[in-house]
Each structure stands twice: as C-alpha cells, then as structure tokens.
TrEMBL record:
InterPro entries: Carb-bd_dom_fam9 (IPR010502), DUF5916 (IPR045670). Residues 1-20 form the signal peptide. This is Uncharacterized protein. GO terms for molecular function: carbohydrate binding; hydrolase activity, hydrolyzing O-glycosyl compounds. GO terms for biological process: carbohydrate catabolic process. Residues 239-815 form the DUF5916 domain. Keywords: Signal. Residues 46-190 form the Carbohydrate-binding domain. The keyword Signal applies. It comes from the Bacteria.
Amino acid sequence: MTKKYLVLVCILISSAFAKAQSSNIDTTIIKRKSYKATRVTTEPEIDGKPFEDFWANIPAGGNFRMIEPTSGLPERETHKTEFKVAYDDDALYVAGYMYDSNPSQIARQFSQRDEVFAQADLFGFFINTYNNQINQTRFYATSANSLGDSVAENGRDDFSFNVVFRSEATIDENGWYVEMRIPYRTLRFNEAPVQDWSFQVYRQIRHLNEEYSYNYIDRTRGSSSQYDALLTGIKNINPPLRLNLYPFAQGSYTTFDGTTTSNISAGMDLKYGINEAFTLDATLIPDFGQVAFDQVRLNLGPFEQTFGENRAFFTEGTDLFNKGGLFFSRRIGQSPTGSGRIELFADEDIIDNPDASKLLNAVKVTGRNRNGLGIGFLNAITERTEATVENSLSGERRNVLTEPLTNYNVFVLDQQYGSNSSVSFVNASTLRDGSFTDANVTALVVDHNDRDLTYNYGAELKMSNRFTPDGTVTGYNTELDWRKTSGSWRPRLSHDFVSEDWNPNDLGRNFRTNFQQFGGEIEYNQFVPTGIFNSYSVELGASHRRSADPDFHINSGARINARFRTRERNAFGVDANVNTRNLDRFESRIDGLNVRYAASQSFGGFISTDYRKKFAVDVRANYFYLFSDPEKGYSYNIAPRYRFSDKFLLVYRFNWNKNDQRISYVARTNDRTTSILSRRDTHSVENQLSGTYNFDNKQALSLSFRNFWSRARFSRDFEELQDDGTTTDSDFELAENSNPDANFNVWNLDLSYRWRFAPGSEATLLYRNSIFNFDNQGSIEFNDSLNDLFMEPVRHNVSLRISYFLDVNDAKSWFRSA
C-alpha cells in the first residue's frame, strides 16, 4: 500500500511541475509600471532632506494606489507620495517624499532597528534583483527615523536578515522625507551590462490606517511580491567584493549560590561573497551568552519541550533551510542526548553534567543564480561532551560520554520556475563519532501556482533513515495540498501521510507518526470596507485522522473561525470546535495502546483594540469540555499596553489556565506492559512584563520579565489502561518516595542597554537574574509557591558584548588614503 501511495505522489509532483508554461507571469493579470533610474557621478548627503541640487534633475515616480483598506483606489490629494532613484558605481540612492496636509498627525513612535511596525508612518523600498516576482530585499524607514531590512519570499518578511545601509528621515510643514544609501554589497545580482531588476515602493499612513504602493497590488489575488514594477536604466555596474567582518568581545560575571565565575571571550562572524550570487557566513568561536531566555513551562506530556531559535547565526538568512520543514536549528548545541541516562554504581553521584553541547563552529552558504536556482548549505560541529561522576566514599572520578563529536549538515536546491513556483530538494544529515546513531532525511517539495494566480498546488515527499547499531530504520512522510488563492471564496483540500518509522528528530522536529489525515476548509474574505468593518473573514473547516497501520479511526473534527477588523482598527473574533472521541496513542507511553478521550467541544474569542491609542488591550478567553466525561478546562489572557510617550512603551501580559479531571499517564507496571492512569488537575499562572525606553533610534533601555507557575495534582484512584482505550480500577500503589504531583515555578528578568554606536556595530550591557524551583507540592497555591521560589538561590549575571562591523572595501580605502 505504501509503495503505491508513493508512486501516486511522484506522479502528482511531476504533473504539477509540467504545468509550468513560462518564466513570466501573465501580463494581462498584472500590469507593471516602469521607472528609469538615473546614473550620477556624485553622492547626496544622506540627511533625510532630499531637496539639494543632487535630486533636482532626477525624475520622480508617483501616482500611488491603495492596498488597504480598499485595494486599487488612487492616493489622496492631501497625501501624495513620490520617490526618486539614482545610482553610481557603488550604491543605489533613494529619496521618498511623503506629503501630508496635516503633519502634526504623523505618528512618530521611536523604535530600534527592524521594529518598523511601531506606531509610526512607514516607507519601504523593495528591490528584486532577480525580477522573478518571488524574492525581494526590503529596506524600511519610519517617520521617527528608525530603519529596518528584511528578505521576503512571496511577500513574507524575514527580519532576521541584517545588512548595513544608511537611512535618515525628517519631518517639516509639508510631510516627511527619507533618504537612503543602499550599497551594492547589500544585494546579490549577476554581473551583466544591463541589470534586469524590479522593485516596489510602499507607504503606510498610520493615523489614517491606509497603505499604498507604487505599482498596484491586488490583495485579492496572489502575493504582493508578484506586483513589482520594472526598474530600468541600471547598467555598467559590477558586483563588489563582499567581505564583511563582525569581530566581537564579551565579558560576563555570574554569582549563584555562593559561587562566582567570570569569563572573557572573543570571536568573529564573517560574511564573504563567493561570487555575485552566493554568500558564505561563518561563526568562529561562537558565544551565545546574551540570547533571550527560553519560555520554559511544566511539561507533563509524552513529547520533549522545544523552544524557538534565539541565536542570530541560525535565524539570519535561513529561509532556504526551512524548505520541507526538516531543519530545527535548536538541535545544534542541544542538551546532550545521554545526559539523562547516566548509569550510576553504588555510592556514585553526578557532580558535573553539561546541559548543552558546545558549538565549535558553523558555516552556511546561500544564494540564487541568474537561472533562479537557489542553493543553501549549512554545516555545524559540536564538541564531545562528558559528565563527571564521583564515588562519594573513595573520591574516585570517572567521565561518562553523553554526546559524541557531532556534525550537522543541511543541503538545499530550490529551482524557481513559471508563475511564482518552485521545486526543492532538501537533505539533512547528522553524523556522530563512534558507535552512535547517524541519520539522514531527504525531501522533495513542490510549490506550484498557475499563471492566472488563481490556484496553488503543494506536494512534499520525505524519507528518513536512521542508521542505528542494530540496523537501518526507514520512514516516510507525504503532504498534498490544493487551495484557491484568489477571490473572496477560497477552498482548500489537503492530505497528510506519516509512516510509523518516520523520524527526522536528529536535526528536525516531529512528534506524531503512523497516521494519515484528510482536511478541507472554505474561507470567505470580505476585502472591501463595508459598514463598520474594514474587512472580515469566516472559515469553516473539517478534518479526519486515521491510523496508517493498522487502519482505524483516530479522530474527526469540525471548526468555525470568524475574524473582524473595524475601520477604527479594533479587531475581534470567535471560534468553535467540535471533535469526535479521540484515540491518543502517545499518552500511554506504550506502543500499540491508545487512551480513549470522549468527544469534546470548545469555544473561544478575542478582542484587540486600536494600537494607535496610548492605551490598548488584547483579551482572549477559551472554554472546553468533554461530552461524557468530567474533564473540562478554562483559560483567559489579558495584555494591556500603555505608550507613555513616543519613546516609552510598556506591555503587561497575564495568562491563566485551569484544566481539571484529565485522564493522564502516571506510571508503567514493572513488566512495562500496562499503563497506569489517573485523573489530573493542572493550574498555571503566567506574568510577563516587557518595556522599552528609546533614547533615540540608536539607544534603548529594555526590560523583559517572566514568571511562570504551574502545579499538577494526580488523583490516587488509579486506573489500568485496557486494549480498547478504556480504563478499569487498579490496586496500583506508588513506590516509596514516588510522587507524580508537581509544583513548577520559574522567574527570569533581563534588563539591557543597547547602543548602535556605528552602522552595523553595537554594544549591549545586560543584567540578568533567574530563579527556579520544582517540587511535588501538587496542592500548593500560587502565593505559597512564589514564597518558596524566593527561598531558592538567585543566579545573577552581568555581561557586556561589543561587536563591530568592518567592510573590507572601506578598509582598502583607508590604506589608499594613508
């Protein structure tokens, strides 16, 4: 059955790929403006005042069209927008003129780099050096003189991308203005006599809640990157040497439980343009001591707890590596896989057990050639990690290997074709030194759009191989998806198949296996303002999940979601879900045994008020229950925010959750053939506070605080899981000193001062403290748990990190002038 299924998937992939007719989008669908850039021999002064003689003879582009709220309307006479583009041998120069008949209303909240969606007006210059209607490099400036940059694929911003460019903005009695200098080293383009580029210019008027673009964007069809204008006139330029160095130094001081430690480290990140299309990134002697803390929670489920990536090297320019979903970067430098399975002999204790494998170095190569072929290569090595065990009587010590020297590798080929479409090959491998498990995962991914920008077809075929000491284990995963991408009514159909042995977790992340799922939905979008609404959407969906081998029904469900956005920028929504009984094959912790949960229903809703006002709030509440079972749950979240001034914003978030009477795993019998369950009550409270005071667009003082508490109390009326998923009373008794109840409390506080003292260069002074407590008080109240938490030792850490940007082209000019 599996082989026939895979053959069918291959046929569908080949069929979708064969539908590509042309490398250009149908021009009857998208009408493209054209603007000719002007070659210059001098540079303008980048001061946000584009009125000097330099700009006088450069033609202006204008006649913008509205994107939001009503797509296609001409710009207001009171809010005209113009731009100018010039170039020389080294850079592009962009001027933006955002006229406003009442400039006192221009929003101008301060923010730091890449925080461009604050409450300020926004200007964007988006350039596509491939002219493929897919990829854009985006440069932003706000009316408060903040800047940002991103790479975008199909209109989706990735702000982990960071390059060094100049931008300045000013405001006067007629509006606000921007000047940008975009060096060619920030772009990737082919060496050619005449460049074939496209671009878009974007404006957001915050107080009017309106967005405009130079080339008309029909937001009811396709993605915004498909609507670029043509940028002509750029010729006889050469890609520069792209070699940027980012040396850094860091010092830290830590106190914890009477012990103090200090550390000084230095290293360097490097970016090198291998050729006009491809870039090498490397981190040498990496140090991630100032990354944000993880959002740790109490984990009582069958799966590991994972966190998002905070290390810049693994977030910047990694869009290619996300193809196929095989790469989860937190596997690199993760907790050693053997740290929790150390075998101890009599009188032995663990005295040192590193909680992470040290990253020795990492490199990545990314880029796309003139034929639309994107190539991504990433390689990282973590060092051998050992725990230290000591005999308390003899004092003898021994080292236990918890993770060998390990090499992680990802390779991607992504060929773009036709109307905003691509086919990708992805391979991820993990190689461990010695007699340990190695792994390799491969994927073929197709994302096909028809020429009319009406339908999207997606297909993924994946295979995992784990090479264990006992042999090779092979698994499969396939995904098929069809959806309509134009018009108000948008249906979608999908099918997923995951074999029992599918396991990409050596370098990826996946927890549920051995199932196939059928899904369908239909969504209605109201894009044009009507009544009090700017827009709204209603979605109705259903899914049906079955076990793959053996075949039986796991669960089915239906849902409805509605989202409404008012003209005053308030939003609200409701959702409801109903599900049949569910067979959970993971809660039992025994292969082949399912826990049967009764049919359920849930309701929820949210409100989000206008962020343009000084005070705004987000609120969400949810409730669910089982039809023939006492389990039920409640949760609510509230997040008020207050903008004291254009420089100071404070946001508080409170989350409350309660889940009662859930059938949950407690233990397995000694022969490991029977799963013991009981009813579990859980309660959690989370408080978060974040705030930033911006001295200007280069200096900021930031606070990030989180306290998370959760308790779990298990009933002592134990039950044995039966083959049909039901339970019977059990005389099981907990072993002495065994208690499944839990009281979990964690406190984290970061206070940092950041100063962007030169383009691409930054100094960060960080104070951090953290407290953690875990015990078995399942009936404890929040205040008592907090008091116990403060009895624990506090970890204090102060660190200073200074990084500097060095462009080798600038260094060469220094030597020439010396």
